[in-house]
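the two lines:
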Amino acid sequence: MLTVTGQVGCRAEEVARIAAARLGFPLVTESRLEAAIAEEFAPAIPDKAYRDVLTSILARLAAEQHIVVSADGVELLTSHFPGALRVLIVAPERVRVGQILLEQRCERADAARQLKERETRRQQLRRRRFGRSAAPLETFDLVLNAESLDAEQMAALIERAVALRGFHEPALLSAEAEAQLQFQLRLRLARHGITPTGAPSLRQKMFAHPSEEIFANLLDYYRIPWEYEPRSFPIEWDSQGRVTLAFTPDFYLPEVDLYVELTTMKQSLVTKKNRKVKRLRELYPGIQIQVFYQKDFENLVFKYGLAERLTPA
Amino acid sequence: MPHGELPPGIERVLFTEEQIAARIREVGGEISERFAGRPCLKLIGVLKGSVFFLTELSRQIRIPVKIDFLAISSFSSKPGAPGLVRIAKDLDDPIHDEDVLLVEDIVDTGFTLRYLLRTLAGRGPNSLAVCTFLDRTSKRIVQAPVDFRCFEIPDRFVIGYGLDHHQLYRNLPYVAVLKPDSQRS
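prediction for all of em together
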């Protein structure tokens, strides 16, 4: 397991995303972990149980494959993952203030104040969930400075560090070690009344349509985090309350909290899909979804010169 | 027709030279008001499309301005092309502690603007705002903050006043809609 975390305003997830792509390892982000927790345990986990829940999920994933994890506090789970490579991204305050300035559309003084507030909130949350607000510096194997290195350079250094550590050589977390760890964790979680209901996997899904792969390529190029079909929304139930129809949008962009549905199909099917989207919006008013129709997609393909990537379906 | 016969491939004029000049005057006034009292405003143009707009806009701003340019790589599937967007031509000078106005020709999906803003924000400006000549909000995928805009445009392919099709038409003094047939050529 490779963990990439950072100070507030360091864009650690972007570095993790590029490093994961270079290494060919799946990326586990904060939002992906939240979805896995909701699917496997419950949508809301008490802070005291969070550490065990997180460890349980990561242990299973790390037993399946090498993973890159970028989620707050993951570097604090040191004892259970002795082979992990831990990376910390740091930057001077003025660089980190710049990111807040951009997000909040405010001026520097206000951004500096907000940075402090975020840091305080994060420390408090970590203390509640992990029992400590920060990991000692010696926890990390590699510390990178985002002021002097851009995201690609940092990812390249991480890739090199992984190669030097022989990350591809040693075995994953063994099945026995995982089973033993899961047993201990489940015992502790049972005290909080928490039992797992499923076991979601990170195994990559194949894209259902070439247009989806093109869209994913475009998002990758512009360094926009995405997840493919991460969640299904029930939209119809029978009289017994069983789900009879669900809708799974193609993409989720966690950074902007937006679902994207690509519809490059004939009009009769588009009408059916439009009805599903309408129903989704009615049932889940907090969900933001944007539908891309054939014409929208053609324009994107045209604008970004992606036509040669579009193979016949 | 104010511009005589239209060049081949053009469907219609969307904004005339006079409309553009008038609107840029207004936006220049808004920017001057917003940044009144600041020692200087740095305009950063994104090459190549924003050159014409930035030139005229800078003339309409009534506070001292500095000008710099950057360019970013274009997406390409050709072998050897970068797999990630990156700065192809960087700024000549730092922007630390400066009030910065990023000047774009057009914002649509928000992909490019998001990348540029994140890059510039890390360089310690005092403030960072965005002015775009054209805004196609209907195409937005990633929300990107636009502080000043001259025109919101429909979902059509437009050219002129810096905007190109295969590097042509940038020098048209107006903004026009390209015929759909010409887009595929």
